[in-house]
Amino acid sequence: xxxxxxxxxxxxxxxxxxxxxxxxxxxxxxxxxxMALIGPNGAGKSTFVGMLCGRIPxxxxxxxxxxKNINALPAHKRISLGIAYTFQITSVFGGLSxxxxxxxxARRRLGRNTDAVNAKVSAVLARVGLxxxxxxxxxxxxxxxxxxxxxxxxxxxxxxxxxxDEPTQGxxxxxxxxxxxxxxxxxxxxxxxxxxxxxxVVMKTAAYITVLNSGEILAAxxxxxxxxxxAVQAAYLGVAHA
Amino acid sequence: xxxxxxxxxxxxxxxxxxxxxxxxxxxxxxxxxSRIMVxxxxxxxxxxxxxxxxLLSLGHALFFAAGMYGLGLSMELFDLSTAPAxxxxxxxxxxxxxVIGFLALRTSGVSFMIVTLMFAQAxxxxxxxxxxxxxxxxxxxxxxxxxxxxxxxxxxxxxRYFSALVLFSICFLAVAYLVQSPFGRTLIAIRxxxxxxxxxxxxxxxxxxxxxxxxxxxxxxxxxxxxxxFGYAGATFAxxxxxxxxxxxxxxxGAGTTIGPLIGVLFMFxxxxxxxxxxxxxxxIAGLVLVLLTLxxxxxxxxxxxxxxxxxxx
Lengths: 242, 314
Description:
By secondary structure, chain A is α/β, with parallel strands linked by helices. In chain A, 37% of the residues lie in helices and 26% in strands. Chain A contains nine helices and ten strands. Chain B has one domain (3-240). The two termini of chain B are 15 Å apart.
């Protein structure tokens, strides 16, 4: 893997009352790349990223962001370091307009500079194709559009690390194609950690793939390495080890 | 006209109408309006927390009473003159709301309601316990001679009306400014979806504490103003009834609108005033109207207006 990692974990573990959701995970995320995190349902993917951004407190283990240990930081402080997170279950401000949703995301960094905030909002909404709907109430949008709004709220933060929890769930095929293009234009400046079930999206975007299974890292490598990995095939397809 | 200009026009227009009302209305209504404006300040303080931050407190009487006794006792026991006593009322309310906010915000939802209710009851009992100084339920009168601020006699009709108007205007414009500022927008975001706001990098705990302090201080300012303008401080104002009033006013007027609290107090005051002139069972009429309003205008009067006509209403 690349020499510079934006984020890494050491022995990260989460135990929910006797059930180990994540066990002793050592993970490294190379800077400026797209990494996909895949694994069957219940593999512990959401728990893992929850511990990265501070939503879920880790039972043990450490998280490093840009070389610094961020274990002690609460979620909002980790986000301020430049981590953006989109929710698996759509979580927008349903009672507010799209413009205000995105403005809230931009404002934390841009503060009182209204012009800068407005410019950012317009740019981001244009990027996800929701410009026409800027004045609509977010709760009135279709599910797919709410997913796009989630992504827009992430983009508006100009994150250094963008964690997307199943972003294409509920999107139409055309929207997925646009999403793939969008994600590709982001990498370089932004490191992306993508939790994704859609293998087409994973194979088209990810430079690296990490496979979680039963709370442990099963395999990590390039898409080609993962595709040919016997253990991964076994986990996904139920084939016995060769 | 932009939304910001419209909202400025609404706020300044409201103040202008209230100022003009003094010269137009008969003296009876002028007296009522002075009281309504001071109580509207209380409602605005409450609305800041309920309407804009989404926190429902059942203990705001404690903050109202903190302001009232902060002013009243420093005049009564320490012979402070009006201006420093008013400052004492403000500082007392600020301190009490900071402490209560810090403790109560460890809970949320129904627990927050119960904890604030309990603190307010404790506050009420404290006032009774120190009856030697506070004169408990009986309360005490603030001497007419002491009720002078910057040379203005607060016991005269005009002195009282316009000082109530100044107090109202300051709080009204301050709240209007705050809720449209980035800070206020963040509070609204917390009201809408706290977890999302946190995951956008906002320190929601700190924001909520600030909101309780601002809300409690405005409520306390109203309590201090009430004692000063109407010359009386008593433990009744610390009872649970006075925690419920602002909730009713705000829900009726429209939670989360800047004009709602004034409308709510005005409506409720005259509803009781008019119905009691018709029958001694006036609470029956008042209750019926309240039920109808809740059924047909669940977002309150200003809330319905915003929904149906003026979507820009701040």
